[in-house]
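Re: that chain you flagged

S.,

Sorry for the slow reply, it's been a week of failed gels. I finally had a moment to sit down with the sequence you sent. For the record, here it is as I used it:
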Amino acid sequence: MKYPMTKQGAQALEEELKHLKTVMRPQITQAIAEARELGDLKENAEYHAAREQQGMVEARIRDIEGRLGNAQVIDVTTIPHTGKVIFGTTVEIANVDTDEAVVYQLVGEDEADIKIGKLNVTSPIARALIGKEEGDVVAVQTPGGVVEYEIVEVRHL
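Prediction finished late last night. Pasting the structure tokens below so you have them in one place:
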């Protein structure tokens, strides 16, 4: 199964992967070698810490490689703008009752970070927006009840 990912999200993972392989791996290998020189490995805290860090880095490398291998990278800037909300678009919505506006980019699970306006495409608000168009009003079930939002603008950034 392929998972949607924005071009920016894939690039960020590729950069992290490169850093892990070209910077972290050699540093850890060096730390293990230096710790080995200290002698008895049973009570060598530096050695055990380096081995633990090595395990975490290798696990993260496998995780990233798996995510990139299963990614369907979508570059929304190459998709014609129709005013319709699709994966990867940046959407400005306004609360119909309060007129409060917010901007979200609809992204894949790995990229989602609500603090910086990156909304998981599987979240209730994103699911309500997908397929709708500028000017449409959508109802979103929230813990506090149903909130209506008007889609002000859809951008392909």
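What I noticed first: Helices lie at 7-37, 45-69, 124-129.

Talk soon,
D.
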